[in-house]
């Protein structure tokens, strides 16, 4: 019986080890994959490690992550230890009050702490960036250090320091040679917890950073639209760094003990600092690889602040622009037009934004963007004619198109009958044959577009009865069809054929079809949203001349080709469009549709704030109905 229990225990332990470490092993293996796929290994390659080392953003994020973590750990450990020792000598009521104050940030939801820090920095007009991230990390790490040190202090004889001083020690000697060695295990535990919390933090870092400063957690979040294989490479590097750090901390004391048993404690004290210094040296070394050759260039020393969608730039466009001009590009990303609008409307300063058509119209109406200097814009001749003079900016006075596309239906050709698509169009989302096997996109604009087009109405309708019928259509869908309402996770889910069909943007469909040959993309005859995103310059831009230079570069052949071939969205540069989608192009047969549709039912969204509020409110009710039905 006992033998059976031991065997069962070993098997259970083995399964737990596999459960925890198999995903890490999987990630490491696919970091050496030749292709982009995360499911099919196409050959050994160091391609993604090279991409990682050549990516200034990735190496900057790596440097920021470890430098902030090490500095926050060192400072919070010192401050937390001194505070804990000081509190141990305070009156009981002070200790009790401070213990509750110390526990408060530990018990608070992290989002509350993050918003508190953000409001604090805004109130005192502290410019957000590296320093604010470091200060926030120090502040939220200190309670963990104090929590680890306090029990060790309470276990000490309260007269220990007095006894040391009676024997001739100074107060400083009593602290450093008597008290600290006794509580060293608590200090080390607190430091390790602080380091772990700092290096792993996302939410607080996200709210307190600015100026393009981001750690690895923020960088991975901004790259989550599509799983970029270079994430595997940099994650593997982090695993290696942490593993080396743990090996140094655990093995060096054993080696030191064999060589000099009497000096074991002294050696042990220096192990962690040496290991930490080594890790910092490694990260600084990687960061230094990003420095290019110094030479005079037109915009040398200047900085461009670029605010765009996540995963919306090519592999090389930013580094190529920096090399060409000598400028530094600091890119921040947003998840929605509304998120971007809130920051810009509240005075955040950027040089270039990439909003969608209807949001450009809103920014023009509210006088938040400036007219382009046509004497500095040389790229409009390269833009496809059908993308010029769109309703939101009829004379292209404010914007230059960046990407364009449509909203349609991505479907698994092995599960979906094409005749159903041709017959039903968007009404296929009400076809019982596909119940529980569909995705809806979490966007009131695109979901109501689908419903309105399915009913034969304009997606820009202001007729309340038509909007109400579209609302009922969506309610019927979520109550009877068991859809899953998603955002960008639809991309990888459909690439892995997890459902039969879903509503999606054309560029994302391009990526899915390149990953899975069984996937198709269909544009219903009832029409769709013919969207485009454009580059604009805010009124409060600090460097409009550099912004004009970047717009020209992004719309040029090299910039547009890098963007479109990597991201997958349709290029606005006419020659790039022909080379990518024409005969022999990278996307020939994958992205077989053309943006220049002749379908009279296709439309461009127009901005109407009152209608936007109505649709937003109704879409919230649809999602509530979906959750209740589920």
Q: Please, could you describe this protein's structure?
A:
This protein has helices at 2-30, 47-54, 56-88, 92-107, 110-123, 130-154, 160-166, 171-200, 203-208, 216-222, 229-259, 264-288, 317-325, 337-345, 357-365, 418-424, 444-454, 464-480, 489-495, 506-515, 544-555, 557-567, 574-581, 609-629, and strands at residues 303-309, 328-334, 352-353, 400-412, 438-441, 484-486, 501-505, 519-522, 530-535, 570-571. Strands 4, 5, 6, 7, 8, 9 and 10 form a 7-stranded mixed β-sheet that branches. Strands 2-1-3 form a 3-stranded parallel β-sheet. The model is unreliable at 289-293 and 592-596 (pLDDT under 50). The longest helix has 33 residues, at 56-88. 57% of the residues lie in helices and 8% in strands. The radius of gyration is 29 Å and the shape is globular.
Q: What is the mean predicted local confidence, pLDDT? A: 86
Summed up, the helix count is: 24
| Main sheet overview | 7 strands, mixed
For this structure, the CATH topology of the largest domain is D-Maltodextrin-Binding Protein, domain 2
| Computed CA radius of gyration, to the nearest angstrom | 29 Å
CA(first)-CA(last) distance: 45 Å
Beta-strand portion reads 5-15%
Brief digest:
By secondary structure, the chain is an alpha/beta fold. Helices cover 57% and strands 8% of the residues.
């Amino acid at each position: 019986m006992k033998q059976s229990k031991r065997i069962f225990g070993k098997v259970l332990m083995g399964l737990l080890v596999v459960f925890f470490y198999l995903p890490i092993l999987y990630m490491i293996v696919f970091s050496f994959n030749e292709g982009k796929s995360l499911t099919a290994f196409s050959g050994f390659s160091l391609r993604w490690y090279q991409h990682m080392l050549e990516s200034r953003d990735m190496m900057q994020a790596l440097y920021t992550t470890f430098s902030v973590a090490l500095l926050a750990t060192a400072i919070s450990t010192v401050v937390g230890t001194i505070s804990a020792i000081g509190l141990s000598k305070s009156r009981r009521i002070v200790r009790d009050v401070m213990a509750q104050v110390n526990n408060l940030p530990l018990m608070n939801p992290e989002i509350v702490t993050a918003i508190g820090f953000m409001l604090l920095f805004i109130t005192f007009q502290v410019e957000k960036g590296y320093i604010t991230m470091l200060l926030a990390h120090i502040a939220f790490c200190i309670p963990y250090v104090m929590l680890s040190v306090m029990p060790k202090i309470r276990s000490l004889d309260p007269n220990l320091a007095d006894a040391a001083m009676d024997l001739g020690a100074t107060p400083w000697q009593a602290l450093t040679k008597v008290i600290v060695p006794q509580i060293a295990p608590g200090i080390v535990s607190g430091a390790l917890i602080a380091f772990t919390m700092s290096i792993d933090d996302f939410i607080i870092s996200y709210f307190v950073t600015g100026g393009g400063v981001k750690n690895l957690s923020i960088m991975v979040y901004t790259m989550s639209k599509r799983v970029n294989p270079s994430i595997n490479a940099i994650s593997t590097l982090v695993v290696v760094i942490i593993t080396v750090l743990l090996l140094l901390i655990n093995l060096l004391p054993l080696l030191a003990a064999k060589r000099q048993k009497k000096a074991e404690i002294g050696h042990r004290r220096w192990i962690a600092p040496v290991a930490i210094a080594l890790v910092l040296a490694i990260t600084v070394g990687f960061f230094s690889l990003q420095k290019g050759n110094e030479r005079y260039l037109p915009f040398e020393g200047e900085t461009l602040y670029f605010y765009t969608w996540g995963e919306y730039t090519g592999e090389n466009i930013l580094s190529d622009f920096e090399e060409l001009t000598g400028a530094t590009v600091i890119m921040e990303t947003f998840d929605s037009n509304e998120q971007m609008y809130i920051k810009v409307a509240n005075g955040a300063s950027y040089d270039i934004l990439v909003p969608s058509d209807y949001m450009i119209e809103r920014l023009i109406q509210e006088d938040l963007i400036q007219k382009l200097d046509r004497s500095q814009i040389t790229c409009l001749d390269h833009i496809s004619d059908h993308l010029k003079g769109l309703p939101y900016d009829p004379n292209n006075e404010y914007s230059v198109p960046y990407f364009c596309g449509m909203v349609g239906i991505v479907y698994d050709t092995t599960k979906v009958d094409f005749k159903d698509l041709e017959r039903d169009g968007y009404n296929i989302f009400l076809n019982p044959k596909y119940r529980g096997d569909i995705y809806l996109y979490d966007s009131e604009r695109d979901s109501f577009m689908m419903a309105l087009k399915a009913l034969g109405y304009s997606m820009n309708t202001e007729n309340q009865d038509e909007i109400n019928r579209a609302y009922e259509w969506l309610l019927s869908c979520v109550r009877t069809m068991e859809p899953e309402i998603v955002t960008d996770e639809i991309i990888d889910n459909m690439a892995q054929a997890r459902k039969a069909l879903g509503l999606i943007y054309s560029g994302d469909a391009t990526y899915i079809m390149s990953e899975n040959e069984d996937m198709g993309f269909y544009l219903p005859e009832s029409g769709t949203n013919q969207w485009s995103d454009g580059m604009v310059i805010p009124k409060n831009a600090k460097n409009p001349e550099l912004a004009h230079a970047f717009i020209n570069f992004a719309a040029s052949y090299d910039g547009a080709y890098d963007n479109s071939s990597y991201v997958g969205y349709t290029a606005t540069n006419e020659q790039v469009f022909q080379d990518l989608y024409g005969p022999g192009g990278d996307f020939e047969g994958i992205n077989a549709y053309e943006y220049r549709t002749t379908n009279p039912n296709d439309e461009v969204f127009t901005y109407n704030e009152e209608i936007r509020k109505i649709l937003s409110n109704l879409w919230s009710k649809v999602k509530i109905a979906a959750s209740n039905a589920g």
